[in-house]
Input
Amino acid sequence: MTETPEFESFEGSEIEKSFKCPYCNEKISMLLDISEPGRQIYFEDCEVCCRPIQITYSSDQGRLVDFFAQKM
Ligand SMILES: [Zn+2]
Output
């Protein structure tokens, strides 16, 4: 038996999203909680340049439907 449910972890409430930092243009990633439907706003410091990024995203039924990373 080689059944490996490798996508199992994505059925939960969090997904990993990669995006470019609006300041330094480095690719970074973060975990998004998509268990709550509707629009969410987060503030996250870039792990490369440490400047604050405003993360805005929307989710619907466990799927990410919209994502923005903006300078504050
Ligand atoms: Zn940065």
